[in-house]
Amino acid sequence: MRIKFEGCDLFDGVSNSLHASMHVLVADGQIAEVSETAIAATADRTIDARGKTLMPGLIDAHVHIAAASANLAELEAMSPTYVAHWTARNLSQMLDRGFTTVRDVGGGDAGTKRAQAEGMIRSPRISTSGKALGQTGGHTDFRGTNRADIGDRQRRHLPSLGRIVDGVPACLAAARDELRLGADFVKIMANGGVATPTDPIDWIQFTPEEIQAIVTVAEASNTYVAAHTYTARAIEHAAINGVRTLEHCNLIDDRVAGILKERGCFAVPTLVIYDCLDRHADAIGLGGENRVKNKKVREAGLGSLEILKRAGVPMGYGTDLLGWMHQDQLVEFSLRAQVLRTADVLRSATSVNAALLRRDDLGHIAPGKTADLILVDGDPMADIACLSGQGENIPLVLQEGNVVKDHLA
Fold first, then answer.
1. What Å distances lie between residue 377 and 352, 365, 407, CA to CA?
2. If exposure means fewest CB atoms within 10 Å of the residue's CB, which of 51, 319, 335, 371 is most exposed?
3. Nearest 10 degrees: CA dihedral of 252, 256, 262, 267?
4. What span, in angstroms and rounded, lies between the C-alpha atoms of 207 and 204?
């Protein structure tokens, strides 16, 4: 399929401004030509894109594609068949919002990734960690104080975001097992979390030896480790022991941001989830200590972006949404735009996340790149609200040159 865009304004994924009145040819799944003048080559379809912005397909680097409920303890007891159907619908809705690639950091599996690759489901391209690894009493442990046994609740085919592992041998085995099952990278929980019942935000999770063991397995398999972290202490603990991407980072400080920069790490802030949890706390039953924890990290979120930006740490776009809150996936754009330049926010969801995923063919409109593209009504550089809602302002989505959403008519 050869598609030609004529007269579009172009955000190429890396520049600070739009390129006006551009012409782009897509052929054989790739971007074949980008020109300031009309392209003479023939095409199967020519699109008059005047007044619209063409940009790379969006990438969300922190999702939980199978989080069918905001109550993660409840998720573990759900029917896996129901969760599979819910996941397929969730992924289809992400594609409608313009996300052509997502990185799942707990709960997704290679089966869903295979279904997408084989065209069985309508979905963004998926990179997944499989089940996240966490310690007893940590951010994958939803037993609370009243249930002693793990039982079979975290078996491979039961819905859960993670599994519980303790000690270096168990960490080695679990990391190897998730990679055996088809994970693209390994996710660990290195800090306390908002949603879990027994781990305060300031808890450090996993010993240096445990993290180093997991990193050793990942690097031996030519991949990397991502870590759930909030506090400066936990972020430093993960980074100096070899973790490559630090998720959330709400309570970071300037010194630790400098460490991330020195070590070539990525940060993936996720502001919208805390905004959602705050707005919908009563509806989802978030109370007591969990609500206090959420308030603490939410109030620090915008400040963490300023710290990371000041240090020059590359920030990927992530959302971390759960259950029906996935509908707010695009809200992250407007939250970040309160303190960051719009161009930086757009790059976070395109070229920065492509680099994080080690996919230099994505996130950039240039000849030879994969033709993941979205057409936006209006100018997101001037008005970030173009990227909002459920993708109503995104009438066309291409994935590897194939039209997967077409509302131009």
1. 23, 18, 11
2. 51
3. -20
4. 8
Cβ-contact 353, 316 below 8 angstroms: yes
pLDDT of residue 237 exceeding 90, the answer is yes
Position 301 confidence tier, pLDDT thresholds 50, 70, 90? very high
DSSP state of 57: P
Q: What's the sign of the alpha-carbon dihedral 279, 281, 284, 289?
A: positive
pLDDT at 129 over 90: yes
Residue 342: other Cβ atoms inside 10 A: 19
Selection from 265, 193, 189 nearest residue 224 by Cα: 265
- The rounded mean pLDDT for the chain is 93
The sheet with strand 99-104 has its strands ordered as 58-63, 99-104, 125-128
- With beta carbons less than 8 A apart as the criterion, state whether 26 and 401 touch: yes
Q: Determine the pLDDT at residue 156.
A: 55
For the stretch 377-397, pLDDT in tens is 999 999 999 999 999 999 999
Contact 374, 36 (CB under 8 A): no
Answer whether residue 142 shows pLDDT above 90.
Answer: no
Q: Report d(CA 319, CA 393) in Å as an integer.
A: 20
CA distance readout (Å), 243 to 108, 225, 287, 339: 20, 5, 32, 27
Residue in this structure with the two tokens 């990397």, named with its chain if needed: 224
- State the DSSP string of 221-286: TT--EEEEEEEHHHHHHHHHTT--EEEEEEE--HHHHHHHHHHT-EEE--HHHHHHHHHTHHHHT-
Percent of residues, the chain, with pLDDT higher than 70: 94
Band of pLDDT at residue 155, cut at 50, 70 and 90: low
DSSP 114-147: HHHHTTSS---EEEE--SEEE-TTSTT---TTT-
Cα–Cα distance measured from residue 357 to residue 125, given in angstroms and rounded to the nearest whole number: 12
Where does the pLDDT of residue 70 fall: very low under 50, low under 70, confident under 90, or very high at 90 and above? confident
Distance CA 335, CA 271 (A): 7
Q: What is the β-pairing status of strands 396-399 and 402-406? A: antiparallel
Distance in Å from the first CA to the final CA of the chain? 19
Structure tokens at 98: 């313009």
State pLDDT tens for residues 243-284: 999 999 999 999 999 999 999 999 999 999 999 988 888 887
